[in-house]
Design brief:
Layout lengths: L1 H25 L5 E3 L16 E6 L13 H16 L4 H6 L8 E5 L11 H13 L7 E7 H5 L12 E6 L8 E8 L9 E5 H5 L3 E5 L1 E5 L3 E3 L1 H6 L10 E2 L2 E2 L1 H9 L4 H4 E12 L12 E2 L3 E5 L2 H18 L30 H7 L11 E6 L2
Parallel strand pairs: 2-16, 3-4, 3-8, 4-5, 8-13, 9-13
Antiparallel strand pairs: 1-6, 2-15, 6-7, 9-10, 11-12, 13-14, 13-15
Helix pairs in contact: 2-4, 8-11
C-alpha cells in the first residue's frame, strides 16, 4: 500500500504544483489537486469550443400546468444535436460522441426538484438516443448526489428497464460513493474537513459523461449552469465554500471541473431551459421566481454555454426590476427571499475564471451561437 501511495503522489505533482503557485500569485485559496488520472480524450471544452446551439420552442412546456410536450422536446433535441455536429441524421449526431461498448453517465440536476430540475422528458430522450446508437440500458447511468432529490423526479418512468438511476450519497453524508484517491484539498474558513472527493462512478466506471444542467439563478455563484452542475454535483463536501456572506465559488467551481478524469470524460452538455428560476436558486422556495425560457442549449464548451446563461438570467432579473446578478455590494446581503437581497456576495465571475483554466471560451464576442426555432 505504501508503494502505491508513493506512485500516486508522483503522478499528482504536475497537477498539484501549478495549482499551489496559482494560489500564491492571485491571492486565491491554495488548491491541491490530487489525482492519478491523466488527461485523455476530447473533454471540456471538447470538439466544438466556443460553439453553442440554442433551440427555442413555444410549445415545449405549458406555463399554467408545467406539463412538458414530449414531441416538442424530441424535435428540440434533434435540431440541437444535428446543428451542433453538422450532421443530417440524428443518429449520426449521437454516434459521433458515443459508441455501443461505452458506459455513459448522465449528470442530472435535481436540487430544485420537482419544480425545476433536469426534466425526465429531456433525460428520457437523451437515453432513447443513446440506445438508438447501440448502448445497452445497463451501460447508462442517471446519477445525482442526493437520493431524496433524485427520487422526487421519477426518471424510471421515462427510461427503459435496466438503466441505472443512482444517488451517490445513500444515506446523506455517506462517503462510500466517493473516490478517496481523487480530491481537491483546500482550507477555506478553517473547517475540519478540507477535502472534496470525486464521485467514485466518475473515476471508476464511466467512460463518458453527459451534463444536463438547468437555467437557474444561484445566490452564491450567480448562476447554476454547466460548470456548477458538473463541479459541485460530482464532489463531496462542497457547501463548505460558503460562510456568512463570503463564498469561494469564483475559483472553486472551475478548479473542481478541471480535475481529471472529470474534465476528459465530460463530452457533451445539454442545458434544460424549459423551466428555470431567476431568483432564490438553486431551490424554488417561492414559485413566483420560476420562469419559462422554453429553450435548450447544446454544446461541448461549458464556459461558453454558461456565459450565455448569464445573459438569460440577467435579462429576466432586469425585466422583474431585481438587483443585477453582477451586483456584489454588501448592502444587498440579506436573508429573505426578496428579489433585491442576496444570501452571499455573488460570484458570476466563476465562469470567466473557468475560462482561464482552459475549460472554454468566455468572451461573448467570440462565442458562435446558432439560434433555432421549432414548433
Amino acid at each position: 500500500m505504501q508503494l502505491e501511495i508513493k506512485r500516486r503522489a508522483l503522478l499528482q505533482l504536475p497537477v498539484l504544483l501549478p495549482a499551489v503557485l496559482q494560489g500564491r500569485e492571485q491571492d486565491i485559496p491554495r488548491y491541491k489537486l490530487i489525482t492519478p488520472h491523466a488527461a485523455k480524450g476530447a473533454g471540456m471544452p471538447g470538439r466544438y469550443p466556443a460553439r453553442v446551439v440554442t433551440v427555442h420552442s413555444p410549445t415545449c412546456i405549458d406555463e399554467s400546468t408545467a406539463q412538458v410536450n414530449q414531441s416538442a422536446v424530441n424535435k428540440m433535441m434533434a435540431a440541437g444535436m444535428t446543428s451542433l455536429t453538422g450532421t443530417k441524421d440524428v443518429r449520426d449526431a449521437w454516434a459521433g460522441f458515443f459508441s455501443p461498448n461505452e458506459t455513459v453517465g448522465i449528470k442530472v440536476n435535481c436540487s430544485g426538484a420537482p419544480k425545476v430540475c433536469s426534466r425526465p422528458e429531456v433525460v428520457g430522450e437523451i437515453v432513447r438516443n443513446l440506445v438508438t446508437v447501440g448502448l445497452k440500458p445497463a451501460n447508462i447511468w442517471i446519477y445525482e448526489r442526493f437520493d431524496d432529490q433524485l427520487e422526487s423526479v421519477h426518471y424510471d418512468r421515462f427510461v427503459p428497464a435496466g438503466v441505472h438511476i443512482v444517488a451517490v450519497e445513500t444515506p446523506r453524508k455517506s462517503v462510500l460513493g466517493y473516490d478517496p484517491f481523487v480530491y481537491v484539498e483546500t482550507d477555506f474558513f478553517g473547517e475540519e474537513d478540507t477535502r472534496s472527493n470525486l464521485v467514485r462512478l466518475v473515476s471508476e466506471r464511466f467512460d463518458k459523461i453527459i451534463n444536463v444542467p438547468n437555467m437557474k439563478d444561484h445566490g452564491a455563484a450567480g448562476v447554476t449552469g454547466c460548470l456548477k452542475n458538473i463541479a459541485y454535483g460530482n464532489y463531496s463536501n462542497v457547501a463548505r465554500s460558503h460562510y456568512r456572506e463570503k463564498t469561494n465559488t469564483k475559483t472553486f467551481i472551475g478548479t473542481l471541473a478541471s480535475m481529471e478524469p472529470l474534465r476528459s470524460k465530460t463530452v457533451l452538455n445539454v442545458m434544460d431551459g424549459l423551466r428555470g428560476v431567476w431568483h432564490g436558486g438553486p431551490f424554488v422556495k417561492d414559485v413566483k421566481y420560476a420562469f419559462y425560457p422554453k429553450q435548450m442549449k447544446f454544446g461541448t464548451d461549458p464556459v461558453a454555454m454558461d456565459r450565455l446563461l448569464l445573459d438569460v438570467i440577467e435579462d429576466k432579473r432586469k425585466a422583474e426590476d431585481a438587483v443585477s446578478v453582477w451586483n456584489r455590494e454588501a448592502k444587498y446581503i440579506g436573508h429573505t427571499l426578496d428579489k433585491n437581497q442576496n444570501l452571499f456576495i455573488r460570484e458570476p465571475g466563476h465562469i470567466e475564471y473557468a475560462g482561464t483554466l482552459g475549460l472554454g471560451t468566455y468572451d461573448v464576442k467570440t462565442i458562435q451561437e446558432e439560434v433555432l426555432h421549432v414548433a
